[in-house]
Amino acid sequence: MPVIAHRIAIASAAAFAVLAATASGALAQKKYDTGATDTEIRIGNIMPYSGPASAYGVIGKTEAAYFKKINDAGGINGRKINFISYDDSYSPPKTVEQARKLVESDEVLFIFNPLGTPPNSAIHKYMNSKKVPQLFVATGATKWNDPKDFPWTMGWQPSYQSESRIYAKYLLKEKPAAKIAVLYQNDDYGKDYLKGLKDGLGAKAAAMIIAEESYETTEPTIDNHIVKLKSTGADVFVDITTPKFAAQAIKKVAEIEWKPLHILNNVGASVGSVIKPAGYQNAQDIISAAYLKDVSDPQWDNDPGMKQFLDFLAKDFPEGNKLDGSVIVGYGVAQTLVQVLKQCGDNLTRENIMKQAASLKDFRTEVLLPGIKINTSATNFAPISQLQLQRFKGERWELFGDIISGDVGG
Known about the structure:
By secondary structure, this protein is α/β, with parallel strands linked by helices.
């Protein structure tokens, strides 16, 4: 009898040890920071739902619809996304207010895809001092790729300097004697594009760029700037504007019968929110660059990625305008975040969020153009660095040439 009792005691002890190990293993596996639990991942977002950049507000609405779709299917690793999105009217002081509210009151795990260069610049130091990820910011400023000094901030879209270097390469090859007039938004976003253009043109920049005009987002119209630029005799117009002003520029250039080669930055190239309102007939032969598929391009009619996107619009976001480039941006960046959260598993610490965001290898959301992949590392916080040139014909953009890397320094 004592022998049997002893055996039972050993067996119980062994079972207890296994149980304890399992329990501590489970505890070791699950790591949370503020904003994450067994059932929830709380994510903050800041968008200009009103104000001069309100055309971009649809990005936040698309993301909300996509996360709802994910939640309806069971969430990510069993956790539902609680997406809290606030309006900052594209006003940096308001952005600061909303970021503080999200971090200190709503206690989000991180802030995802806040929009605009001036708004993100206003919260850049705050987010990094708080060690809260400012993840996949919706702006292409080059400064978001600075893991050494700002390890909590990462971009997503190609950098503005990368993109304008591609335009510079094109001009040096196709129009080396060009007389270039530049219109740019007077902030970090506009200046970043301008720097990339000048760096890309190199020693020829001073001779080729004959006029530079900046505008403020508070101006109701940029018509007077366009008239002034035409008077310089420029035969290339580099148009660095956000949607509202891009539509104005296209209309005014046509109205005053100025016929330059018109290069329009990607952020103002949406068919739905820019070209259509400005008039298709006024946008013929404009050149831009793309990294995402365009719904209006028939070559994607049978594309599985495009079919998935259109299926999402039909089922989960019927109010979304498929021709609005911002909708496909919101969808693509939301898919990228879902991948990062999947990689995090049960370690939902802010540190691991950044670690996984910096560990994307050849990831593709299938709305990216073929050949473009997302790659990040501990020293590379610029997920997308490739684009393809496109020309506006009829009622849509037509891609031409190869996929080009506009890596700064590359």
